[in-house]
Fold each of these.
Amino acid sequence: MPCSQRKARILLKQKKAKIIGYKTFTIQLQIATGETVQEIHIGVDEGAVHIGMAVTSCNKVLIKGEIELRHQSKVQKSITELITARATLRKSRRNRKTRYRQSRFLNRRKSESWLPPSLQARINATFFWIDKFISLLPNSEIHIEVGKFDIVKMINPEINGLDYQRGQCYGYYDVRYFVFARDNYTCQVCRAKDKILQTHHIKYRSNGGSDRADNLITVCVDCHTQENHQVGGILYKWQNENKKVKQYKEPPFMNILRLWTFRKYPDADITYGSETTPRRKELRLEKTHYNDAIAISGVEKIKENPEIYFYLKQFRKKKRSLHESMARKGRKTPNLTQKRNAKNTKAIRGWYLNDSVIYEGKAGWICGFTGTSAYVKDVQDKYIKPPGKSYTQIPLSNLAN
């Protein structure tokens, strides 16, 4: 059963318990005890990127926090991009190594439960952490908030009947005219309306961009120039900044996650956001993922609520390929000899990848090695640098656990 930090220290000091895990910190009693247990409720606020978790018992909040799943950002590639790059390299390798092989098709079938890897990874991660808390807490009752969205109605609140069978471009000559109407016949660069308009691909087709409406934007002929397409131009910056029109990727994922949650946890108490929000306001809690989880857990009133909360962030554990198709920064040639990168080294001098360390009062995690130094990132996925320096290598002798 959950206990306070003071009680855990006393049990360990008296040799009545032993440590069996550090994340989360878990001890196991070595003495005979009774069978008396209190009710424990686990609240889970599912999300496309963040998961809120909270454990309550006897109107007390025992633990609360947030978990950030892997997703595309400025500092890390999405699972979709990594899989696309892998498929490209494999196709190139097969053309080089197996030219004699006949083409194969219609010999691969996906199971009915198949999901795209980008979705499957987030669903697996969500269920992993839910199962983790269930395994640590005996006889716990789980409460999960799921989401149900009507994406078409989010785009057009007045949609009804037959309109559900028609796409956004229905009634327009083609996608180009729909994009003009969506952008109110206004250039998205200079905001002019009285010029000749054209459609621009935010992500260039030469880089894998599509002709769908969510990759097109309206610009005028004066702004749609070759100079603006080059490096440093505003159209080129849009591509690097992932500038996009409003998309609806999260609602479909939440709809899929809801169905999988029903199958995975048939005995769970399911709730929705329309019930969580008024409940959280009754408890006088601010809008955060872990506070939503507290309200979801079904607590009637809060007697104790610690200020400390945990924050977990999932990231790519390692780079599995030993070779590179393009040279890394600082290298003149690609690594084609399958020589392991220094940043892929697993351990040096007793330090391991992903070890939690402290440097100059800042907490971080080791993400790579170089010689006798290490690269350390903080919770925001930014490198921790030595004071007054521009490089990111930190000597191993200066790190502390």
Amino acid sequence: MSKRGKRKGRNSKGGRQSLRGVKYSNAKRRAGQPKRRPNKQHRQRPVSSGASTRSAPSGTARSGTAEFASRISLLETKERAIQSRVNLDSIESDLNHIDGAFLDIPLKISEVNKRGFVFTRDMDEALALAEDEWLSGLENELDRELSSGVSKVAAASNALDRVMLQLSKPNQFIVDKAESELDQLDNLIRSTEQAIRGRYSAIKATIDEIYGDLNEANWGIDLLNDSEISLRGSESIVQVAEAEWEIDGEDEGPDGYLYLTDQRLLFEQKEEVAEKKFMFITTKSTEIQKLLVDTELRHIGTIEQSEEKRRRLQWGSDEILSMTITGQADLSRLRFHLKNQQAEDWKETMQFVLSGEIQEDRFDFDPESAGAEFVFPTTCPNCMAAVPPIPGGVSVYECEFCGTTIQAQKG
């Protein structure tokens, strides 16, 4: 679900220690401070008189041709649109959004951890770095730049008001001047917004991505809770996608949801299937919900992704994820058409899970254990069933035969 954990060049052990200090100092500041930016009522900003406070001249008071009347009407419409932006409220809204996120996201991460999605350490780390930059002077600098920008825009807006008042007795010079002043004010607002937004765009992008990951995680958990899948005691969900299982490579197959955990790949069919039709219209249907694929990750060999355009008049390409399977007599290959997700992302995530690196993104991951090797017994101590090879980074295994929880020992 999260894309940040798959990046190359993850933090070194020393880097993690430094980041831990950043996270601690940020949490301490949050705990000792009330919620910042309470509507920013303390900021005194000059506000132009604006079109809303000036009575528009009536048509009977205007002189000139019908062309002037038409141009003036367009100018007034444009002015109302521009005046709605003179206080740079979109920038203010962004700053409030960023400021509140540093309090809101930790709570949402904790909630999603409790619901069963545990791979959120990368979100926490990304948020900590963004918050450290924000609280290390950037927030105050942006406040000053916003106030300065609003002052400049307000001055230009007031100058425009004086020109617009002269349209009660328009002539060619006044109308041309009003058009020019409107264009200048519009350009000033755009350039001011662009300059300020560029200062915080990276932080906002990080925050928006984290919110997106959290929404996706909650969506996946909701689907899992409504499925027939039972996770093992040590098993955790990683990613979910709406998908179609293309059995035997056919373009058509059962629709449902593809689940990736840190131990298995599962596909559950979940769709309405027509039972009766009349003149190509479905008159009776039934919902099928059935677990069709349950494959241990250790049985997955090669993983491939592709984009295929297989239908006439098709706008985009189908995202295809396929893999070879070993050690299972009933399956030798799996092929899925992913809906609304990229197969390349799934391939990278699966490789990340298979390598064991995914465990470093657990919210309760201990950096001191990084690099430690876990050794499992060869048989279950309860039923003596063979313990299969376990994916790297996994320290707890639930016996497939008797359900006994087996704790690995550090090698």
Amino acid sequence: MASYIFGPVPSRRLGLSLGIDLVPFKTCTLDCIYCELGKTATPVSKRAAYVPFSQLEDEIRNFFASNERAQQLDFITLSGSGEPTLNQDLPRVVKLLQQLSKTPIALLTNGTLFSLPEVRQEVLTLDLILPSLDVVSEELFRTLNRPAATLKSQEIIDGLVALRLEYSGQIWLEILFCKGFNDSPAEIERLIQATKAIKPDKIQLNTVVRPGALAQAQAVEPSFLSALLPRFGPEAEIIAPFNISRDHNKTTEQTAKTILATLKRRPCTADDLKHALGLKKVEVIKILDLLREKGEIKMLQHSDKCYYQTTN
């Protein structure tokens, strides 16, 4: 039986977060070339009950009834391995979480469905919304984000503008720069103008940090982001790596130790570790990323696969 709760896991942006996955793996409106979870087989834009609400409810109730880690959370994050707003049971999940916990709830979303009034209405009681916007021009949208056929870049931006007008909570807008794609002067200026219209509370500049769906997805230089920062105004920041030493959750620390011990014996892919440890892939990737930032592991490419191994 599939599990839809993962973590708590350390998050770059949200501290210690309990993830709740509302869709099956890679069920998404986009097929971004930089996605660390790999390719989306067929991007979709139709909302549906993609996972059984009864199972979601059981897992959520069990976690908060019997898990002392629930007291350590900084956020509950609706996120995971696809686009959570595709799930039409989103408001039922939010209502359940608010009944069981006072922990702030965040929505990690690609922002593509806020053009729908019902989706905007469903998220109004959340504490934090973290949408993304990588491009403005339609041609680049098709090239970098590879959306479902019905989605249009300007409609997505209009939806984010409408969300800001209706939603009183915090909006942290992420812009991920991919070298050679959305880093041209013209596209940067379009993005600056779009952020002025959207008026997020924060603008978080980021770049590729893990192997993506396509090898062409490469990071921009840190100096590029630093030079760009003031152009986006005082709300802008560069997303800093999360320090694993801040995470006092022993389960996460033990998982990291287990992964290190496994990689000392032999190189493994993220899928290898997922199956060996019985974790969700997104959880494995987050811990691998933390270990890479500490310099304890490195990546190797072999036969079109990404392997991880220890550095000593």
